[in-house]
Amino acid sequence: KQSDVPKNKETHTGSLIEQLTTEKYECMVCCEVVRIVAPVWSCQNCYHVFHLNCIKKWARSPASQAEDGNSGWRCPACQNASMQVPKTYTCFCGKVHNPEWNRNEIPHSCGELCGKKRQGLDCPHLCNILCHPGPCPSCPAFVTKTCECGQTSHSVRCGQSTKIHCSNVCGNTLNCGKHSCTEVCHAGKCSPCQLTVQQVCYCGNNFKEVLCGTKEEFSDGFGNFSCQNICGRKLNCGRHNCTQVCHPQPCQLCPRLPQVVYRCPCGQTPLSKLLELGCVERKICTDPIPSCGKTCGKPLPCGGYEFIHTCESLCHEGECRPCSRTSNIYCRCGFKKKVSLIFFLIAAITFMCDKRCNKKRSCGRHKCNEVCCVDTEHKCSLVCGRKLNCGLHRCEEPCHRGSCQTCWQTSFDELTCYCGESVIYPPVPCGTQPPECKKTCTRPHDCDHPVYHSCHSEEKCPPCTYLTQKWCMGKHEVIVICFLLLFQLRSNIPCHLTDISCGLRCNQMLKCGMHKCKRICHKGECLIDEECRQPCTIPRLYCNHPCMAPIAAISIATKLTDLQLGDSVEISRLITKKEMKQARLQCDEECLALQRNRRLAEALEIDDNSDPFNIRTPGPKYSELLKEDARKDLKFVSDVEKEMRMLVEAVNKGKHTKKSHCYPPMNRDHRRIIHELAQVYGIESVSYDNEPKRNVVITAVKGKSFCPSNTLTSVLDKEMQSRPLAPPPIPHYKQTDKTTGDSGLSKPLKEEPIIDYFDVQD
Predict the structure, then answer these.
(1) Host H or E run for residue 681
(2) Could you give the domains of the chain?
(3) N or C: which end of the chain has fewer CB within 10 A?
């Protein structure tokens, strides 16, 4: 109700009087109605009325303290800071303590004239109505006031804040004292004079314009300002110029006049003594000053903390030569020093070293880390930023030692539990947990079982512990009644448990269709990425004994047909990693001999490809099957050998250690030819992709790949030239074997399937 602020003072005061009289006004702290006989306190800034006890509690609470901590406590309504906490119950005008209620008077008033001075106005009259709440009304008296320029006067109501302006020109004298204000009647002081005047410097060489009436505008007779240049005016001798900076006073006497100079240039010997020794007396300022012949000894502008350097030249006129000595200069923190080669060095000059300060700052958390630090307190300028006790806000004070202060944020909303039965009334300090509630939780639950836990502030409810009946993961709970198997649910299982193991064997049929799972009751499939490893129980054909071979080995045997047809077979699922390691061949005597020869060749620096004693085979060995395939397609073999030779020569002559070539997709016979030829040339070969786009990629390695002396095509040519004419074909008969007794015609041999072992290298 009191949030609707009246438009003027009269309605504000009338509204407060009406609400207090009818007991409809509420205290902002406790939200209770302000009774007629209850002690109250009224804010002198916003005129809100509070219970005296409520405002005392509020003033002592941490939430009421001002932001800077030194300005007292804040009003709950207008946030105006007050230093003193109210202690006594007084009327609105403050004259009477503990006023008694009178039916014919305003509640909480003394019934006498208010007599308070009206705030914010220059009205000399006091409030002339009875003691009242709210602001005092405007003064009803009339007074005579003059306009802003003082030329006219008007009769206005006392305390009127409106300024009176006439239409006349102001005409008041400006700050320069020469010109008058040309503005129409205005409030406040007249603006400074905006006219500009020209000024000349003391030496007369420079000019500038300034506003009329400023301090720079006034002159002392020699000029108005200094241009900071050399004066340059002729001295009284008429031969030399002034060397001082532009100055207001007359120039000084010529420093070389005979009546001014009494000593030699270094100042150690009087000229009178030099005249006695035969020096020529000076007549005018241009005559040279006699030299005494001693060391100059004037202090130079260089030097260090230890000593001052002096001029080492003989007595001379003019400035001294630059110092030829060096000085030690210390850094700002005194950690480093360096030898200075600067001629004109000021003794107080310092430099900054690159050492970073490792001392802890005042907070004890961060390092100073300043370069060439000279600070003694090492105050931390970072913001603390740690979380306060509420867990929502962070400390905004400068980084400090110890614990942070409690969070000063306060909520004026009611804090309730989830169901709303328990309430904490404002003000509520930040971080306050919701109140405890003894009522049963009313949140929605996943199950329909009765709820036994109390109302809570956590979003997730505790798990339901109601005892239910559930199946185990394998549904193994079986009971036997009268030779009948009955499946039964497990009892006394808490509702929140989902995956239950009964502890019995799984006994689910595996994919092999022969065995059952021997694992304890489990979740999911029995075998996911593995094959059955249990022994085969099928009886053998001849002896009726069980096979006892692992199912994985049988699976490998069934896939040999695909392997013979040139397809790749994935066996990682059929054997374990341990079996794969055990399947690696052991080194024999031939391996040891090869290692011994390799070490001997490395010691003697013999290349593996070299054959100085011609002890190796005279040429490569080509298999009969490869020769037979080459005779069928000689052009294809010739092109393949040509490509391999070019690849080997390119890798041996080039910078790269490896070079590869990819053949287009081709059939299985052509791929086998490439694999066998690559083995002769020492080239790596691998088949990629699936049919019908399966292709071969060959890779030549420097130092390993080589070109054989005889190519396959040349070997075939030699064989064709040396081969005799073929006799007519003779039928073959199988001779009698003395050991076996077999006789008769030989049966045609069964052609073994040709397996391209290189073509399965994926």
Answers:
(1) helix 668-681
(2) 11-137 (no CATH), 463-526 (no CATH), 624-715 (3.30.1370.50)
(3) N
